[in-house]
Amino acid sequence: MPSISLTRHLIEEQRLGHVTPDLRLLLEVVARACKRISVAVGKGALGDVLGEAGGDEASINVQGEAQKKLDVISNEILLEANAWGGHLAACASEEMEHSQQIPDAFPRGNYLLVFDPLDGSSNIDINASVGTIFSVLRCPEGVTAAEDHHFLQPGSSQVAAGYCLYGPSTMLVLTIGHGTHAFTLDREQGSFVLTKAHMRIPEQTREFAINMSNQRHWEAPTQAYVDDLLAGKDGARGKDFNMRWVAAMVGDVHRILTRGGIFIYPWDRKDPSKPGKLRLMYEANPMAMLVEQAGGAATTGRERILDIAPTSLHQRVPVFLGSKDEVDTATRYHLQHDSAAA
Ligand code: AFP
User: Fold this and answer.
1) Mean pLDDT calculated for residue range 277-300
2) Domains of the chain, with CATH numbers?
């Protein structure tokens, strides 16, 4: 069976009218950047890429989080690749306060790219999985100088979404709205090869992913839902559950796309001003598109993530995503709580 490269897959999708030449070439540029990030991540302690950025003075990003060297390196790789890529009007990143237009001197296109250049970067120094998450939107008609507010489109407007998982193997998982497909990096050839077409998430699951250390800070319906998972076959759910937590969204989502499960990062009162930890534009939205395209579901516990009208580039949302029936059950706990409280 001849292997199908990412390039061939995207050309076949273009022939089917599922992707424009410009978007195809943009996705190839992003994939090449992810290959370079994979090389940098793979160097580990041999590559002077570990630890905090900024030397003696900790470098704090717009999220108020200490930046890792690889956060900065990965961001630079994606910016540089797309400056000359020729298919972007502007890009935005977890690591940058504002979006960045493609300078006039560079070739420009009609798409907006928003990304988390290195998701799960607290895993870097312990050699655990990390990843890059990206989302592609159309630049609004007639806009020649895209600004932050042009990115504020609901997740249902995404034309493509994907992640690259830097784990034991490097895998690119991508959707352009016609299924979710996985490609594995063939390091000898230097190309991504299709290894799983049309990923499907089982509708039911016995596996959940959540950071249990925050339990005392969750709101009542989240507590009730997780308590019932923990009660197992002796409780309301009548079956036992297992738990996993990678602490890198890309790793947890990839497991769910591979074998099912539910991933939860709920609202908690540790910082009541924040409606959740995960960011809508470059974590929740792209992952929600990938999961829905694989037959799963993604909500805030109350509403479909892809329907949210964004209000700011770095806004945060609660996230419940994965096996459709389980996400529906978790969402029902929250909606029933609200209607009882009303
Ligand atoms: P970092 O990029 O700061 O490691 O955060 C990763 C993340 O945004 C997401 O990828 C994980 O699912 C989640 O945070 C892990 O959060 P905890 O540190 O609370 O486990």
Assistant:
1) 98
2) 6-196 (3.30.540.10), 207-341 (3.40.190.80)
